[in-house]
Amino acid sequence: MKRILVANRGEIAVRIFRTLREMGMQSVALTADQDTASVHARYADQVISLGPGALADTFLNQKKIIDLALAHGVEMIHPGYGFLSENADFSAAVEAAGMIFIGPEAASIRAMGLKREAKLLVAEAGVPTVPGYSGSDQSPATLQAAANEIGYPLLIKASAGGGGKGMKKVLKAAEFLEQLESAQREAQAAFGNDVVILEKYLTEPRHVEIQIFGDGKGQVVALGERECSIQRRHQKIVEEAPSPMVDKDLRERMCESAIAAAQAVNYRNAGTVEFICDASGTYYFMEMNTRLQVEHPVTEMVMGLDLVRLQIETALGQPLNLERIRQPRGWAMEVRLYAEDPDHGFLPQTGKICLYEEPNGLGIRMDSGVDLGSQISLYFDPMLAKLIAYGPTREACRARLIQALEHTFLHGLKTNVGFLHRVLSHPAFAAGHTTTGFIEEHFANPHAPDQYVIPALAAGYLADERVDLTKSPAQGPWEQLTNWRLGA
Ligand code: ADP
Question: For ligand 1, what atom is nearest to the CA of residue 203?
Answer without folding.
Answer: 25
